[in-house]
């Protein structure tokens, strides 16, 4: 969609290829995000403006190189820019599930399908050797199905926390994400998924409560070993 190299002011150059209909700065990641409408479709374009943004792109691209799933929105092109990579994703029309009243309107079967897909994606993430950092319901879009976006903070596991806390929503973060020097791994992802199940389902079905209780245990060693094991237990409990 873009040439292999886009020099100069990226956002200004993008106007040569189509219509910009959304633009915002992601200060936490060091990237600019631009939604571009062209003859070939609508695209979400992220480009780095500093070293932090370049590092975020490198992490995200490493995850996408290792993990493929229909629910994981993957880049379709990576071009070069003066300040670093320019990554092109399909634009997803879905609504973010963070604080979205839509969730309460969806039938429980649909919400269970959303949780299943999110767990399945993160089973592959764990299998590929990554731990999810900064995962929360803001990473989830929904139209007629769920889409997982923004995996640029995911890290190779185990990840040693060298700050006071990770990025992320405190509603989803595991206890070890608040402890400098803690080791974060697949069991950290399990905690986040247990919290996601609680948030996405609202009133948790009674049969699933023990699954979530174990997934969100304060002691990582008491949780499921990874997202794949959690998903297996989840599906097994839902069997008639």
Question: Which helices and strands occur, and which strands form pairs?
Answer:
Blueprint (H helix, E strand, L loop, with lengths): L4 E2 L3 H5 L4 E8 L4 E8 L2 E8 L2 H16 L10 E5 L2 E7 L4 E2 L5 H4 L2 H20 L2 E2 L8 E3 L3 E3 L6 E2 L2 E2 L22 E2 L1 H16 L7 H7 L11 H12 L2
Parallel strand pairs: 1-5
Antiparallel strand pairs: 2-3, 3-4, 4-6, 5-6, 7-9, 8-11, 9-10, 12-13
Plain-language structure description:
This protein is α+β, with helices and mostly antiparallel strands. 33% of the residues lie in helices and 22% in strands. The strands form four sheets. It has a six-stranded mixed sheet. Strands 7-9-10 form a three-stranded antiparallel sheet, with helices on one face. The protein has a two-stranded antiparallel sheet with strand order 8-11. Helix 4 runs antiparallel to helix 5, helix 4 runs antiparallel to helix 7 and helix 5 runs antiparallel to helix 6.
* Class by SSE composition: alpha+beta
How far apart, in Å, are the first and last alpha carbons? 47 Å
Share of helix, binned: 25-40%
Order of helices and strands: EHEEEHEEEHHEEEEEEHHH
Beta-strand residue percentage: 15-25%
What is the β-strand count? 13
Query: How would you characterize the largest beta sheet?
Result: 6 strands, mixed
The pLDDT mean sits at 94
Compute the CA-based radius of gyration.
Answer: 18 Å
Low-confidence region ranges: none
Net shape: globular
Physical arrangement of strands within the biggest beta sheet = 1-5-6-4-3-2
Helix tally equals 7
């Amino acid at each position: 969609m873009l040439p292999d190299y886009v020099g100069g002011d990226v956002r200004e150059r993008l106007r040569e290829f189509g219509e910009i209909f959304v633009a915002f700065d992601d200060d936490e990641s060091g990237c600019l995000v631009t939604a571009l409408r062209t003859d070939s479709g609508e695209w979400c374009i992220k480009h780095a403006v500093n070293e932090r943004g370049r590092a975020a792109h490198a992490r995200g691209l490493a995850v996408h190189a290792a993990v493929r799933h229909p629910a994981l929105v993957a880049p379709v092109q990576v071009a070069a820019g003066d300040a670093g990579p320019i990554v092109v994703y399909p634009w997803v029309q879905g609504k973010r599930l963070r604080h979205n009243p839509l969730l309460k309107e969806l039938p429980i079967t649909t919400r269970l399908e959303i949780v299943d897909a999110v767990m399945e994606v993160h089973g592959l993430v764990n299998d590929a050797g990554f731990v999810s950092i900064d995962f929360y319901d803001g990473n989830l879009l929904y139209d007629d199905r769920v889409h997982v976006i923004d995996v640029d903070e995911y890290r190779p596991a185990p990840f040693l926390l060298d700050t006071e806390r990770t990025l992320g929503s405190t509603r989803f973060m595991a206890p070890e994400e608040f402890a400098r020097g803690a080791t974060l791994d697949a069991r950290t992802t399990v905690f986040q998924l247990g919290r996601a199940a609680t948030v996405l389902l609202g009133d948790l079905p009674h049969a699933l409560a023990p699954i979530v209780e174990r997934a969100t245990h304060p002691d990582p060693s008491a949780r499921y070993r990874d997202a794949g094991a959690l998903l297996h237990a989840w599906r097994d409990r839902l069997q008639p």
